[in-house]
Structures are given as structure tokens and as C-alpha cells.
Amino acid sequence: MSADQGLRFRAVLERAALLRALRSYFDSEGFTEVDPPAMATCPGLELHLDAVGAHLREGMGGDPVRRWLVTSPEFHMKRLLSAGFERIYTIGKAFRSGERGGWHNPEFSMLEWYRVDARYPAIVDDLLALLPRCASAVSKVRESRGQPALPPLGPVLRVSFAEALGRWAGLDIRDADLPTLHERALALGLDVRPDDDEADVLLQAMVERAEPRLPTDEIVVIERWPACLASLAARDPSAPDIAERFEVYVRGVELANGFTELVDAAEQRARFAQDLADRQRLGRPVYPVDERFLAALEEGCPPAAGVAVGVDRLLMVLGGYDDIDQVLAFPFERA
User: Fold this and answer.
1) Residue 216 contacts by C-beta under 8 Å, 6 or more apart in sequence?
2) CB within 8 A of 66, min separation 6: which ones?
3) What is the pLDDT of residues 188-212, one digit of tens each?
4) Is-contact 255 317, C-beta < 8 A?
5) Rounded to the nearest 10 degrees, what angle do helices 120-144 and 3-28 cross at?
6) Which domains occur in the chain, in start order?
7) Residue 116 region, left (φ>0) first, then alpha (ψ -120 to 50), else beta?
């Protein structure tokens, strides 16, 4: 067995141990594992995510229809919340076009879970309870294969989005209108263009300046995001310019993106309209709006919080891998 084959063999064993640890945690917490579809009428409208399309026929000799492989199971999970489920999780495949590199494969494994009658701190607590369990499961496989132990995950550091940009990007966004934000970003050398809106500038600063400088010896929770980057998160009732969104980084790598969920159908429809307008503005593919999802919200989705975690990245971080191909038995070019 070559060194490359040995690495993949170990990763298959570690993945199995990781999945057992994940399911064990959710079983102990009273969650139901669900199986949302991988192919849907709407793959999601997130501005910076492009979907993989599929052409097929409905039945033998039926009319051709257009579907997409989902970029996330989120819409279907929330429809299940609307149907009465209170604690649910899924581990399945998601698909994103145009994403390939050391941390990306067009087809990847995603863990997603939701708690009804909860806000995002409860989901952060889940993650902080999960991570040591998962690290222990992966470490046992490493040790059985003669691999040295990795450093501990480290303490937890929680900062707001604004604090993160100030600390690691050098960008002060307090009391900054759009012209001021442009001016400050340009002074830092960011490639800000005249038609960039607030979300464009903030996201560029986070990805290009802050993320590369995050500490690798701490679990970093970046919370309280600006409302312009809310995605599917609810606004903070006491601060409408803040979204109850968070991301979690381990050893400097983004693993999780979660929210106190937006369950207001009217605001969700308005955000979808803005997402579609932004996609058209940037020349990105435009997808149908998921009317079934909106109908479920209109019928009544209870207050809830949830998160998505990249399973392949989680395995990479906990297993000490530096390329996603090392943890995939069949990466894109070999699938």
C-alpha cells in the first residue's frame, strides 16, 4: 500500500468513527435523524453559492424537468420543523459548483441540526460539546494506526463580527456609513469597487484579512453579524442592525455557520427577492424561489436555531490533514 493509499485508508476509518460519535451525541440529546432530498426545485439562493443542475424526466417518456442538487438541506429541514419536529439532524451530501481546492470538493458531506424554541447560543453549546467527543474518536483511530497525537483544541474565544474585523483585519466598522466603509477598506488595501455594497466590503475584509489571521490554538466563535450578512438568520430583537448568526473556526478553519432561524415568511420572501436581485447584478445563475418553503413558514414555523457543519473539513481539522482529497475515498477527479 502506497503512502497515499494508507492515508486514505486511515481517513475512511476515522470518518466512520467520527460519524458514530456524531450520531451518539444526537441520540443522547433526543434528536431524530431525518433524510431530506438531495435534488430539489430550489437549491438555495445564497449569493455566493452556485448549484449543480440536473435534467431528468418524470416517469418513462415523461416531460423533461429541471432540478438542482441542493447546496444545503436547510429549506427542507425547516419544513420538517413546521410539520412538528422539534429536534432533528441530518448527515448527507450537498453540492456546489465552482468550488474545488484544498478545502473544497463539489460534492461534500454536511451535518445540519435544529432545535425548536432555542436561539443560537444553544447550538453553539452543542458544538462545544460535540468537538471534544469527535476529537477523541478520531484520535483513537490515529493512535491505533501509529500516528502521533495532535495538540488539544484549546480554549474558546467568542467575539462579535465587528470585534473580529477590528482585531484581525484592522477595519473599524463602528458608525461607518457606506462611503466611510469604502474609505477605510481602501486604506487597508482591499480591492473595493465603487458599486460594492456593505455586505461585499465586509465579506471581503473577513475572508481576505481576518480569517487568515485567526488564532489556531483556540476555538473561535464569531457571532452577532451585521444584518446585511444575515443570510437566513433572524435579527436581534434588541438591535435590528445585528443578525443572530455565528461561525465557528477550529485551528483557523471555518467549520460551522449557524443562526437563530428567520421564521417570518414576509421577511424571508423579501430577502429572497434581494438575493435574486443581487445574483442578477453579479451575473450569477438565478434559481426559482422555493414556494413550498415559504408556504411552510406562512403556516407557522416555531422559533428555532440551527447550524451546518462541513463533515469533511471537521475530519481534516481533527485528523491533521491539509488537503480534502486526503479524507475522500473518491475525490471529484476520481469519482
Assistant:
1) 251, 252
2) 53, 54, 55
3) 999 999 988 999 999 999 999 999 9
4) yes
5) 140
6) 1-55+63-151+264-335 (3.30.930.10), 154-250 (no CATH)
7) beta
